[in-house]
Design a protein that fits this description.
Layout: E1 4-8, H1 13-29, E2 32-40, H2 41-44, H3 50-57, H4 65-84, E3 89-96, H5 98-108, E4 113-117, H6 131-139, E5 144-147
Parallel strand pairs: 1-2, 1-4, 2-3, 4-5
Helix pairs in contact: 5-6
The structure holds adenosine-5'-triphosphate and manganese (II) ion (MN).
Adenosine-5'-triphosphate binds next to α1, β2, β4 and α6.
Length: about 150
């Protein structure tokens, strides 16, 4: 049923709650774990020029290299844990609109389950669901397991 599980992460502790669930399922099903971090260029476009945002979308970070480093650290946290359990793991960093690229990655890589947090970096204050999770649920037809970040609080 589940051969490739995608864990989208923004590197936050609230996103981390999904990882335990993803890894447990991956172990049970012998699934490959894919970790994806999307550098959110919409939120960056407030502070960066359009040209710089375009370059980042193409993977040319220039003086924003630390953004990529942070992203790679977040995906490596997931894949390191997967590999410790003996699971095959793939990590990927891209830049654009998070929910669009999550859906695109899932389609392109034959993902059969997406496991993500109810909330992310902005935290669990008001909304029932973070906007990336809500938009992913609306746009993809692949099953999504949403792990409620409020459960442990
Ligand atoms: P909002 O962003 O709407 O202000 P939030 O940050 O609390 O609120 P989301 O961004 O929707 O909530 O985060 C929910 C989940 O979506 C995270 O736990 C993570 O799994 C995934 N996610 C969020 N941002 C990204 C991203 N940039 N790249 C990959 N996955 C992400
Ligand atoms: Mn967010």
């Amino acid at each position: 049923m589940y051969e490739r599980i995608l864990v989208p992460t923004d590197g936050s502790d609230t996103a981390e709650v999904a990882v335990d669930h993803a890894l447990d399922l991956a172990e049970k099903y012998g699934a490959e774990v894919h970790a994806l971090y999307v550098v959110d260029t919409d939120s960056m476009s407030l502070s960066l020029g359009a040209e710089q945002v375009d370059r980042i979308r193409q993977g040319q970070y220039g003086e924003m290299e630390e953004v990529r480093t942070r992203a790679e650290k977040a995906t490596a946290t997931v894949t390191d844990r997967a590999e410790e359990l003996g699971l095959d793991a793939v990590e990927h960093v891209s830049a654009g609109r998070p929910h669009s690229l999550i859906e695109e990655y899932a389609d392109d890589n034959d993902i059969d389950l997406i496991v993500m947090g109810s909330h992310g970096r902005a935290g669990i204050r008001r909304t029932l669901l973070g906007s990336v999770t809500e938009r992913t649920l609306r746009s993809t037809t692949i099953p999504v397991l949403v792990v409620d970040a409020r459960a442990g609080t």
